Fold this sequence. Notes:
By secondary structure, this protein is of the alpha/beta class. The protein has 2 domains: 4-249 and 374-393, Glycogen Phosphorylase B (Rossmann fold, 3-Layer(aba) Sandwich), CATH 3.40.50; 258-354, Rossmann fold. It is 45% helix and 13% strand. Strands 3-2-1-4-5-8-9 form a 7-stranded parallel beta sheet. A two-stranded antiparallel sheet has the order 6-7. A two-stranded parallel sheet has the order 10-11. Mean pLDDT is 87; it is low at 318-336. It comes from Salix brachista.
Amino acid sequence: MKKAELVFIPTPGISHLVSTVEVAKLLVDRDERLSITFLIMKLLLDTRVDRFIDSVSTACNRIRFIHLSKYEPDPNQPNKSLFSLIESQKPNVKEEVSGLVSRSESSPGSPTLAGFVLDMFCTCMIDVANEFAVPSYIFLTSGAAFLGLQFYVQALHDEQKVDPTEFKGSDAELVMPCLTNPLPAKVLPSVMLNKEWLPILISTARRFRETKGIMVNTFEELESHSINSFSNGNTPPVYPVGPMLNLNRDGDRDVGSEKYKDIKQWLDDQPPFSVVYLCFGSRGSFGVDQVKEIACGLEQSGHRFLWSLRQPPPKEMGLGVEIKMDYRKEMNSDGNDDIVSAGEIERGVRCLMELDNEKRERLKEMSGKSRKALESGGTSSTWLGRFIQDVMDHQP
């Protein structure tokens, strides 16, 4: 029985790491031939990452973690972007993978290197995979519709020579294979309308096309139209293997259980489907004015809410803080300081929470399908099996 090893390279930080580890767990649980090595870039100071890794390492003997050498910034170039920092880790990745290959070759019966599985922000590591003559795969923490949107904008730019940034404020509607209905061009994600960020997005989509396949954190029943849009052969195979659920909250067993006890108790005391939850990601934060508008909108809506509110990093920056601020500013803004008003937020919360019974039943049904998708015989379980088979077929 030929054993295979996959090298996973996630983006630094806890948010992408958790879902990436969850898919790794599914893979090794599904097929005993597989083992997985994570190469961890410690660019940002986050103790949650260490706790999480320790808990997973204890529970899963075929998933291991290697911490890459700490990045030492060039004092003459202090303002490096996140992508530049990831790029700088390529020599360290090559060194560690060379060690894996050497140990495999000198130990009969050890797993052989079968490929790299990369985060969407780590596509530069495709170059390293190519040096070892192994395929690259992507694990996309976002959904299938967003993947289709990336490919659409890249093709629009490269093949039709259209500059997507010109859609800013436009009344045009875009017909995309990945979406059921036309999309107003002016509501494209801000990074696609930003002249500084668009080239990075285009380059990322181009590199996606170089891979042997893309696992997506979604499930077929939720995004059937988007998933079917990839069946024309113009993109690498897409495997909807989600949703990735960290129900046991690895790494939070000691600290988190007490920290969130009161919140869990409060939630348990509320009527079913009565609480709106607000969370803007592990690096999402707002200025004082926007926070006030959100607070007023929530209060005016009259609905119970739970809000994960993050404080912006301090302005006196060390390297880690500097990377965080630069990443958030560039990814979540197009340079404008537009404030979403309390009235708009109130209307949005009411629209979400005051659904009719038919829509509530559809949501409940989809929630059940999301769990069944991961069970044996479920759609995501089936797609996961296809991915494993393709990995074994492409193994050098």
